Amino acid sequence: MDDKKETSLKKPVRKIVPRRYDNRKQSNKSPISINKAKDKINIDNNPVKIMFLGGLGEFGRNMFVAQYKDECLIFDMGLRFPEENMPGVDFIIPSIEYFANNKNLKILGVFISHAHLDHIGAVPYLMSKLNYPPIYTGLLTKEIILKRQSEFPNMKKLDIRVIDAEKNNHIEFKNFLISVFHVNHTVPDSVGFLIQTKQGNVMFTGDYKIDFNPVMDKPADLTRIVKLASMGVDLLISDSTGIEKEGHSISEQEIFQNLEVIFMRSKGRIILATFASLISRLQQAIMLAEKFNRKVIINGYSMKTNLAIANKLKYIKVSSKTIIDAKEINKYKPEELLILTTGAQGEDNAGLMRIINKENVNIRIQSGDTVVFSSSVIPGNEMAVQCLKDSLTKQGANIYHYKMLDIHASGHAQKEDMKLMLNLVRPKHVMPFHGFYYMQKLFNDLAQDVLGLRKEDCILASNGQVVELVKNKILLTSKFIPANYVMVDGLGVGDVGEIVLRDRQALSKDGMFIINIIIDRKSKDVKVLEIISRGFVFMKDSNMLIKETKEKVNKIILKTIKKTVNDNVNESYIRNILRDEIGLFLFQKTERRPMIIPIVLEI
Amino acid sequence: MDDKKETSLKKPVRKIVPRRYDNRKQSNKSPISINKAKDKINIDNNPVKIMFLGGLGEFGRNMFVAQYKDECLIFDMGLRFPEENMPGVDFIIPSIEYFANNKNLKILGVFISHAHLDHIGAVPYLMSKLNYPPIYTGLLTKEIILKRQSEFPNMKKLDIRVIDAEKNNHIEFKNFLISVFHVNHTVPDSVGFLIQTKQGNVMFTGDYKIDFNPVMDKPADLTRIVKLASMGVDLLISDSTGIEKEGHSISEQEIFQNLEVIFMRSKGRIILATFASLISRLQQAIMLAEKFNRKVIINGYSMKTNLAIANKLKYIKVSSKTIIDAKEINKYKPEELLILTTGAQGEDNAGLMRIINKENVNIRIQSGDTVVFSSSVIPGNEMAVQCLKDSLTKQGANIYHYKMLDIHASGHAQKEDMKLMLNLVRPKHVMPFHGFYYMQKLFNDLAQDVLGLRKEDCILASNGQVVELVKNKILLTSKFIPANYVMVDGLGVGDVGEIVLRDRQALSKDGMFIINIIIDRKSKDVKVLEIISRGFVFMKDSNMLIKETKEKVNKIILKTIKKTVNDNVNESYIRNILRDEIGLFLFQKTERRPMIIPIVLEI
Prior knowledge:
Number of helices of chain A: 16
CATH architecture of the largest domain in chain A: 4-Layer Sandwich
CATH class of the largest domain in chain A: Alpha Beta
Strand order of the largest sheet of chain A: 7-6-5-3-2-1-20-21
CATH superfamily of the largest domain in chain A: Ribonuclease Z/Hydroxyacylglutathione hydrolase-like
Oligomer: homodimer
Number of domains of chain A: 3
């Protein structure tokens, strides 16, 4: 890379004039403070309550409430993907039962830190139920939220007010004053918030890292963070994702240089797979394509829409000649092409998998292709990614992934970045979010180590747990508001619960076994009409077992009927007996426990 | 650690007199050769066929066949754990359809490289079907195989002949000569084999690493490997597991020193979780317990039996006073206890999970416990291990895991060890096993790089594919023998196939929907007797949907019956119509696709 280019890359080139959040005052001066009268005696004992509806001890479903009297602010509104033991579930969103149960509560605004699904994904599901309070967020985030909203039918228009972290934006309410600051992440317009209240100040980092050489972005605004923190931060709510990683997070600039090496080496097509939401990474790939005279094909719906929005708003820089349609692929030589695609996690229906499975009309893997996985592997996806790599190898591609070369950087602060943030903010209390419980604990250990905080100053809360702030003091209460999983499955929101899931798990393990019998009330004749097995044994290969089971059913029912005093055959009793005894019988024969479903018809 | 101790650790202290494989000659002299007459013209065109029944492009289910004319040798007989999309399956074993289809084949012997389940796990399932050929393996492996066999009822006694790698053991057949050599792994008595044939020599590394400072073991026998290789190795079948890891594998001695640091630091109980089969690691932990005056509790059935066998055979060294019963736990102070437990992968029923879930009668996690995960996380288990860590943190334990400190070493050679092995053996062809396809490819790249082999000398085979060795030349043919998955589920071996699995997957995703109707043939009256939904929607909350569905069913059937010309209502036609139309109806209502099961009764 020549020096000129390098310099130009280091300079953030974005110059956008964001639409302003119109009816609020803005200033470039020192941050304003809601509780200048801090030294006066505060006789107000109404706590500010901080309550997470999701995002503690888990990844995704980020959402918390800050409440003072009957006024609430909401921060983020994300979704998470289901766990392994939740088959069929599309995703999980936070529960808003708290608001349903407390109709007096007023939601003054919803503050969104950045445009990732784990922070915006529940917007289409929850806003209508919360009577569409105004949303405050960055310009890019706004457009991405609106795009997603447009895919859901029958939704009211969202009232989204653009805030700009560079302009020292404040949003003022009677009892809250919100200030915004810029942080680095893997999508532009990522921000954190300072929440000033009558009882003290809470700083929320959002998802952040500190990158002194970001691509098409400015470094996190450390000066502003310090200025805001100078008003005293009673509680720092901090991203704890990267706590297990030593050192500083890798700069996007370093990623850029490593990707450049791959571009220099590759003689065939380059296929770069990453997350659709990693807009900074997509920008880097496009820059490199332009430098190395490659045309770019975008493969994947969400990637296309995200890039279109970012391009329209000038958050990325791309020549109009760079992007070509996939249909034009054959007009170019392999060395003239870069394919950007979704599906780096081995997701079934995403871009890369469809190429490998030959479902993509225009793009096939060919010998000499270089496939670059510019993403980490999300826990749980390891096997899927491994299969992807195997298929790619079989089809003749060379592979680069993040374990071989630093071609992916997480969007989250690592240990040294966290130390820096803690030192800049010097909070009196900390409360980690965005991490498993174990990571939150490690973050608290770090805060104690770095700032000399006491253990009780480091809050290890669970979802729903009420954290109170009164007179600059933090109390982790033992009160809880509802914060259960709300599962989305198809069109159903919240209708899949424990029982349905337990049935699915049972069915998936050993299948089911339907016994359809008819009983003649008068003659006490029993006939097994039908046995249907699904997912238990293959019926055609199990004639013997089916025959034996039928005989067993006959015996059980005859024995049961004999015992009945009058004609009154108790159907539900027969069902129970069949479930128990045939269950046991089949277990002895197979050591499997299918779900037994007796269908009893009396005539 | 004082010098004396360190020295004593470095010296292998095992002195066992293994039972010898009795009716074969042994020597400490140079390896003998079956094809000394190599220079003579070989007019025999019968190939030696190498065929993997499992272990290529996957982990587990290791088994391959070496065949010359109608004589076969089998190497290893392992199982693997199911993939995510195989709910209910316990494990997968190799198919032996090839032997069932070719009754003329004689199996001269089964050679087992070491005592891990992915190399011995299929023995109880396959030996009876193969008419119990003799097994050749190390003493410890023999006893572990026998212990496992004893847990399966109605099995004939296995004929296991002990081979000792240290004694230059050869096993001679008319057309094969097998030599054994010692390698390092995570269980003692791990060996590789040289297979000499009329057509050339094949070396099989087994699972190996090269450890110059093993614990209670000797370093891999490099001298012997070189001596054996000096007869010319036409094909090296090599472990490729560690190909993605740079450098040399970590010595068990280094693990020992890091574990020692934890023992020095920990003031409470130490709970060390690892694999039951990692006998070397268990030995280390016991040594440290003895050094630091801690009693040892073993928690987990398989760990107990493995240790008992290793102890009986003097493969480990443990004072009779060290191991105590879990019932005695309260007689000792926390700092006097080490608990060795299974369950480091977060397995539901293993030792550690039962402690956390308070199902263990004697052992509970208490504040101040130090939990050490001395194992890596097997891909696919990440989330389970994360939950484990979260629960442990909540219950007050401190955690050490392999990402924080080198307290686990893989049993597999890394890149530099592989380079060493390739240089010692200098094979004419290589063929990687024990790895995904992608890893096998990387191994072949390495072999080309290190030895200057041509691409066509590096075999990238699939399970079942026939590799032929004729006159010291290797040919990857396009012939295949059956090598499909045989799934074990409960007592069933091989009865779970594609269809059963597909049903389980479908049931797990969207559940099922049973429609029970009765049709009066004469009056053409239709009655929906019952709708049963499991895993689809929660019935109690879905009255409306059930009601609408019943109406829809009625309509569909009436319309269908009307069309029938005579009384002959076609039952199977009605079933199909119901499946299609109600399936569509429910999808429109819910965007879910439950399995529709119509039960139609005509009277």
